[in-house]
Automatic annotation (TrEMBL), chains A, B:
InterPro entries the record matches: GntR_C, TF_FadR/GntR_C, Tscrpt_reg_HTH_GntR, WH-like_DNA-bd_sf, WH_DNA-bd_sf
Top-level taxonomy: Bacteria, Bacillati, Actinomycetota, Actinomycetes, Pseudonocardiales
Species whose genome carries this gene: Prauserella shujinwangii
The HTH gntR-type domain, residue ranges: 5-72
Listed GO MF terms: DNA binding; DNA-binding transcription factor activity
Sorted UniProt keywords: DNA-binding, Transcription, Transcription regulation
Protein name in the entry: GntR family transcriptional regulator
PANTHER family assigned to the protein according to its UniProt record, in alphabetical order: GLUCONATE OPERON TRANSCRIPTIONAL REPRESSOR (PTHR43537:SF24), TRANSCRIPTIONAL REGULATOR, GNTR FAMILY (PTHR43537)
Secretion signal span: none
DNA sequence: GAATCTGAAATCGTATACGATCGCCGGGTG
DNA sequence: CACCCGGCGATCGTATACGATTTCAGATTC
């Protein structure tokens, strides 16, 4: 049978996929019975899936009211990006000595494609490449707990992520330059602390750019 | 009615309490029906509670077999302490500028009690005070996501924690000295990076001491 | 016209029931 | 004697059922 198993897992994957892909946008109301019907299961496994997503902060839950995809206001964005800067910076540093020359080459290729695409800028495509780039640098992190936190951070921001670069296109250009600098550090086997600092600041720079933009937008309105 | 709410939450608190307090030791098998009977509820809320604990890595789960309190072998301990060093270091740094003089005073009092108790050393008591001390320093962290990760790390190590100091009593002495150094940095409003590094290294030193002890023990056997 | 009440619809919360799966133990077979 | 196999008990997985709670529209009152 192809139906390997476990409907709770099925529901979990289903919902998570839809959140990360942006089909369920923040605030979208997750009605148990509806999802259960869509999947052809009862509500019980769906409830369990939602509990897990709740513990991962992907959905919020209110007793007797229900679940909805976690809202991501400016404050939540700040908290999440700050946390991601922390854990991704560390993961990148731990991963750095283990990154193979082949991975460096591939990362550089991705970054060069990103640089070329700066002229005819497509935020969504750029965002995808951005993840691919960073993925190559942190995936070798030998501490699975840290790596898991990194993935959770990216997941949480996944559907919003386009907008960071679409709102602040200038940041994309700087970002590509910082990527190249980061690659050089890794190539030359720089001190882990230096790599960590560079990776962390790369992300906080994006955060700062976004916040500056938000501030400006608020003044505009 | 006193029974304010939600049996799923009740089960969650109940199980977590028992894990953290050490009544359910690592490997302890969590049988749904048993726990449900103890609480006077059905298995459904208990299952949900276990799903959440699973997402927090406090319990492991195997389909059709059941849940058990997460085992903490040397490798898991390493991963968890390393992660805690990362997030607690950062939380302490973010918290530092917000720590009040009163909190510093209380932290110093706790640390002096720890110092006094070094002569007639009680690992369990020392461990409790150790948490109280660090709590005072990181609880003002303004980023709730980071703070939550810190709490999860401590929870995960809670029942094991005695043994760190009971196995490596020499570490307790150094620990008290490092606490005082950390307090001085906070008092003088040191650079956040300096505070972060000090707090992180404080924890990695404990980890290193434990690993050295483990290594030595392995050679002894 | 605004505030409040009322009841129905939507949705959640939990109990119960029963089929499915796993692990173990005892008996058969080479 | 070692190995395999079949059945049994324990436990999980999920569906269904129904009571509890929230929400909101529409009527009612001041």
């Amino acid at each position: 049978m192809t139906a390997t198993s476990n409907k709770s897992q099925l529901a979990y994957d289903f919902i998570k996929q839809r959140i990360v892909s942006g089909r369920y946008t923040p605030g979208y109301r997750l009605v148990l019975a509806t999802i259960a019907a869509e999947l052809g299961v009862s509500v019980v496994p769906v409830r369990e899936a939602i509990r897990r997503l709740e513990a991962e902060r992907l959905v919020t839950f209110q007793r007797n009211v229900g679940a909805q995809v976690a809202m991501l206001d400016e404050r939540e964005y700040l908290y999440t990006m700050q946390t991601l800067a922390l854990v991704e910076g560390y993961a990148t540093a731990l991963s750095a000595p283990l990154v193979t020359p082949g991975q460096v080459r591939r990362a550089r290729e991705v970054n060069e494609r990103m640089r070329e695409s700066l002229t005819h800028f497509r935020p969504h495509e750029f965002t995808r490449q951005n993840f691919e780039f960073h993925s190559l640098l942190f995936e070798n992190c030998p501490n699975p707990h840290v790596l898991d936190l990194v993935h959770r951070g990216w997941d949480r921001l996944a559907n919003l992520r386009d907008s960071t670069f679409s709102f602040v296109p200038g940041r994309a250009h700087e970002s590509v330059d910082e990527h190249e600098r980061l690659l050089r550090l890794i190539e030359q086997g720089a001190d882990p602390d230096v790599v960590e600092r560079a990776a962390r600041e790369h992300r906080t720079h994006t955060l700062d750019a976004f916040l500056a933009h938000q501030g400006a937008r608020l003044l505009d309105d």
